[in-house]
Amino acid sequence: MHQAIPTVDGIPVVHFSAPAPPAENNATDAKTLETARDAVGPAPSRLWLRMSAAWWRSLQYAGMTLHFLAPQRPPSPSFSKTIPSTISKVKGEFTLQFYVPRGYEAAVAGRTSAKFPAVVNLHGGGFTIGNATDDARFARFVLDTCNAVFVSADYRLSPEHPFPVAVEDAADALLYLIRFAPELHIDPFKLAVSGFSAGGNLAITSTLCLADHVKSARKSGRHIPAHRIRAVASWYPITDYTLPRALKRARSTRPDQTLPETLTSLFDAAYLHPPDLPLSSPYLSPSKAMDEHLAEAIPETVILYTCEWDMLQQEGEEFAMRLGREPINKVVRYKMVPGVPHAWDKSPDPTKPAEFSEELYRECCEHLRDAFASA
């Protein structure tokens, strides 16, 4: 496969330039990072970060418009719901986009009593850019292969809402489906969570956050309906913020194909705030979570994909292998996609889908379908 220009969520990043955030630590043998200050350095103003994020969001919108033009055109959401945040201390609201499978409308009309599995999806974009509709191509395979409702969350973005708001919104999206499953015609015992890039991190960390929230709620006597999350599907996630970006880039098999420093520095400065934020938080770096936490909170089935040329490839593979070993013992379906950079599947080519993307989307959804069908 040949791809000269790396992209992230539909943006060809090499040919664009923007005012650069502070440079990454270029010492490839640097020690692990402890706080956001270690990763970001002298932080730019939050106002500057907002302006820069807005600029990149406009580019991302253009790239995704081209991405959606390639045949077969992806579906559009059937309906949306704007819900209040309940877990985060930063109160607000965010929107869920619902894509529904065959037979759903008949259930809504009362012609059947069917209950559907559901997949909560978290989009990519460094926690800073992106929209809930970005993964509509993947949604088509969830609808067709799993006959499940696909619920994609427009979680609140940084720098306006830095860590941990995105994690808490992602957990809140799951909690909303659990609480309102009967009205939504969803089977609360057949849930899964998926995500891409930053959303791949959220797919993992949201299950940790939700499990902790449910445990706390039940201890205090608050009712959380019975439910079961069967699987997590994480695509090229970041799992460890304690490793310097320069080190990750240097150990990539194709450093020239990794995301540029301009973009990764913006993402980190926007999301990793305040400066004393500990980077080993399991809600930020799930690879730093205790075995007991992962064993208890992560669903039984873990589906994880990495990209060969991605700076995140090695940490993603190591995390997948850890989840499958003693004492965690999850059922791990792991694959490294050869010869592709980070977010290759969001190629802005309007003539055809990215190579391998549809085959792997289908494979992932077959694993999800099997998880829903398990005892």
TrEMBL record:
InterPro entries in UniProt: AB_hydrolase_3 (IPR013094), AB_hydrolase_fold (IPR029058), GDXG_lipolytic_enzyme (IPR050300)
Q: Which residues form the Alpha/beta hydrolase fold-3 domain?
A: 119-344
Query: Where on the tree of life does the source sit, at the highest rank?
Result: Eukaryota
Please name the source species.
Thermothielavioides terrestris (strain ATCC 38088 / NRRL 8126) (Thielavia terrestris)
Q: What's this protein's name?
A: Alpha/beta hydrolase fold-3 domain-containing protein
From the UniProt record, which GO molecular function terms apply? hydrolase activity
Q: Which UniProt keywords apply?
A: Hydrolase
Query: Where does the signal sequence lie?
Result: none
